[in-house]
Amino acid sequence: MKRFKVFSAVMAAIGTVVLLSGITPAQAADTAQKNLILATTTSTQDSGLLDVLIPIFEKKTGYFVKTIAVGSGQAMTMGQKGEADVLLVHSPAAEKQFMADGCGVDRKLIMHNDFIIVGPPADPAGIKGAKSAAKAYKKIAAPGSIYMSRGDNSGTHSKEKAILKAAGINAEGQKWYQQTGLGMGQTLNVSAEKKAYTLADRGTYLAVKKNLGLDILVEGDAILLNIYHVIGVNPAKWPKVNAAGAKAFSDFMVSKEVQDIIKTFGVDKFGSPLFSPDAGKTVESLGK
Amino acid sequence: MNMEQPVLAVKNLLVKRGGATVLDIDAFSVNRGEVVGLIGPNGAGKSTLLLAMSKLLKAKRGNMYFKGNDIESGNGAFAYRRMLSMVFQEPLLFDTTVYNNIASGLKIRGMASSGIRKTVMEHLNRFGISHLAKRSARKLSGGEAQRTSLARAFATGPEIIFLDEPFSSLDPPTREALMDDLQRNLQEAGATAVMATHDQMEALRLADRIAVMNQGRIVQMGPPEEVINQPVDEFVASFVGTETILRGKLIKTGEGTFTIAVSGHEIEAVGTGQIGETVVCCIRPEHVTISANPPGSATSSRNSFRGRIVKISRSGFFYKISMDCGFPLVAYITSSSLENLMLKEETQVFAAVKATAIHVIKHSPSMGS
Amino acid sequence: MDLIFEGIKQAFFLLLSFDREVIGITWLSLKISGTATFVSLFIGISTGMVVALNDFPGRRLVVSLINTGMGLPPVVVGLFVTIFLWRNGPLGFLEILYTPAAMILAQAIIATPIVTGISLAAIQQLPRNLRLQILALGATRIQMVWILVKEAKLPLLAAVMAGFGGVISEVGASIMVGGNIKGYSRVLTTATVMETSRGNFDIAIALGIILLLLAFVINAILTGIQQRERPR
């Protein structure tokens, strides 16, 4: 029976770990009122901005924020289903539809940066320095180049579709046009491996560029603006939504404190800020 | 037979498997302190009967009485199970030491460890395995393992022990030694036991009574001598080693004797019967004597046949002599007899059988076989 | 090559400097996967026992379902758990989506068929008559089951290893139901995915190495017990 004691001891050890861990659903349910689900784009998480802002918000308000980093498209789907409380997204056309459908409340402009077209330094399509993003896409669409699309209904993907539409290109099914289905950071990694062009938000690009080997080839076109809004999920539609928490987060994001942090975020690491704070401005005034 | 109440009595037991009847026992009982040998070919239902009697198998119907009390299902069956022990062909030891294996039944009963120690020591000793107490059960030889299994079965002080072919996977010397130990322990413990075996020699050696099983039924039950010398039918006769089984017709009756015609030859046997009856003659090989010359009238054997040796083959420590005497006849002789008589195949010999050694079965139920 | 070397260097640096976040993530991974394995052991071993020891109509179907379940894709589990745990889903009232509890639930669902399947096989490979022998020794049904578990303890340890190994290295379900929330539901695998997507390959490699080390150490301990138990 002595041998069996060893076996029992292992079982007991595992049991002890379980008890020590103190993870119980009851405990989680207890704090449910204080939970706030923030559905956001991958770029805000991958850039590290939320790692700075969320702890401040939690400390200030006592809410516990569950940041679910997905594409803007999925974030808004979560909002539509009432599975998130507040959204931080960058897909203005889809956002307008979202608001029009009555899914959201209290949409506020937070910040912007811009999209850039990146590609291999050799630039086989010769788009470097192009003033128009649409023209650059027309060149990429010629044979011999590869373009990586995220293909995930994210804000970046929506922006890409908008540019393709402006350029009059039907990319779907074309040999040069490939889809990764991945987040921004990973799509940049894949593009680097494949020596392909892709559209990226500047924040993520700056965050991952150190090991990347992709250069900024096109920037500055007005169509490339990347604008982030915060939207509360409509509590009239979904009673379970934490509306107070959403309001608190929304107010927090436009507060002077946060706007100041955004203004300088990334300077120490990348030499320039990743985002420009835009609280109180209008979309039309941006990029001018 | 025994006026005392049987330890275990089985009535109208029926066990089915997949719709087919595998066991159908009208009545079977085991008396206190006796060893019953269950013999029969593979698939005869020996194991099934043991499992049914130990309440480890669900019977379709049937009653079982332990010391006269009906063993009911539920707690009655559980209480009964704690009064029995079972030993299988495989030792089925637990993955622990020999000591702990023998202690297992006692631990299951919640016995205090001081009591366990005393009992285990005693049984280690009884089966000559004291030196193995601390050894892992995985490192035992086949014989040692089966000794441990037997000790484990005896340690709980069972009222009745069921043994299912306990020696079948052992080599002959180990089997011999273990049979001795089992016999001694059964006697010392005054234990009641039922042992299934397909080896009639084992049963003859250990059993007070033998039950012969075939196709789920008990076809004959009685003391070993009776089963061997007076089989009730051809199946039992051949299973217990009757080599010569002849069918014939009763043609003549005398004073306590009668004569049977077999393939035109006359065989005289003891008993009564009606002329014209169809009967079966059973002649055990050890009851046939062989000589080179015709036996004189002085011999007490009433039957003498002239024959030709068809085949000589070894059978254990004896030689099996198959003869053609107008009908097939088989005898066993020792190797020295074989040399003395200078027997070879095709030799002409005379075979003699006493009339009293011929067992006659009338109206054999398995005539058709 | 440089990258891998950097990653290994970083891994040791993170480990040796007892980086708070990394220690926290590692500990959380252990807790969540350990708990999930523990839960799956209870359910899996008992289910395996019930199926192994009983004959009932549809048993074959149940066995094939268990065997299919052994290869249950984690993301599919993640998807269904997420749908069930949504606020407006059937189990939304529990309010455990994006919590470690949800991760334990998903991982336990992934590990349970594995543990069940191995337990079932472990009990079935014991000699057929063993359970009859145990009952004949006077055991109650519960005592019999307990003794059978002890007899099958070596293959059952393999079930522990397979279950734990399956869930600690799993990422699809964890990220879906846990949300990869920093300091709360971020475990080694989800952190590795995130750091990869952030381009922090050195940290990703470091986390990967820690995950490997963890799996190695746990399996080494269990294998050690298993080998010690085996006859020499």
Overview of this protein structure:
The complex is a heterotrimer of chains A (288), B (369) and C (232). Chain A has 288 residues and is an alpha/beta fold. Chain A folds into two domains: 27-113 and 226-285, D-Maltodextrin-Binding Protein, domain 2 (3-Layer(aba) Sandwich); 114-224, Periplasmic binding protein-like II (D-Maltodextrin-Binding Protein, domain 2, 3-Layer(aba) Sandwich), CATH 3.40.190. Chain A has helices at residues 2-21, 25-30, 42-46, 49-61, 72-80, 92-100, 133-140, 155-167, 184-194, 202-208, 243-254, 256-264, 267-270; strands at residues 35-40, 64-69, 86-89, 104-119, 147-149, 177-179, 197-201, 215-218, 225-233, 276-277. In chain A, 45% of the residues are buried. Chain B is of the alpha+beta class and 369 residues long. Chain B is globular, with a radius of gyration of 25 Å. Chain B has two domains: 8-237, Rossmann fold (3-Layer(aba) Sandwich); 242-362, OB fold (Dihydrolipoamide Acetyltransferase, E2P) (Beta Barrel), CATH 2.40.50. In chain B, the strands form four sheets. A six-stranded mixed sheet of chain B has the order 6-7-8-3-9-10, with helices on both faces. In chain B, strands 13-12-11-14-20 form a five-stranded antiparallel sheet. Chain C is an all-alpha fold. Chain C has one domain: MetI-like (MetI-like fold, Orthogonal Bundle), CATH 1.10.3720. Chain C is 76% helix and 0% strand. Chain C has eleven helices and no strands. Chain C has helices at 2-16, 20-53, 59-69, 74-85, 100-124, 130-136, 141-151, 153-168, 172-178, 188-197, 201-229. In chain C, helix 1 (2-16) crosses helix 11 (201-229) and helix 5 (100-124) packs antiparallel against helix 9 (172-178). Classes of the chains: A alpha/beta (288), B alpha+beta (369), C mainly alpha (232). Chains A and C meet through helix 1, helix 2, helix 3, strand 2 and helix 9 of A and helix 2, helix 5, helix 8, helix 10 and helix 11 of C.
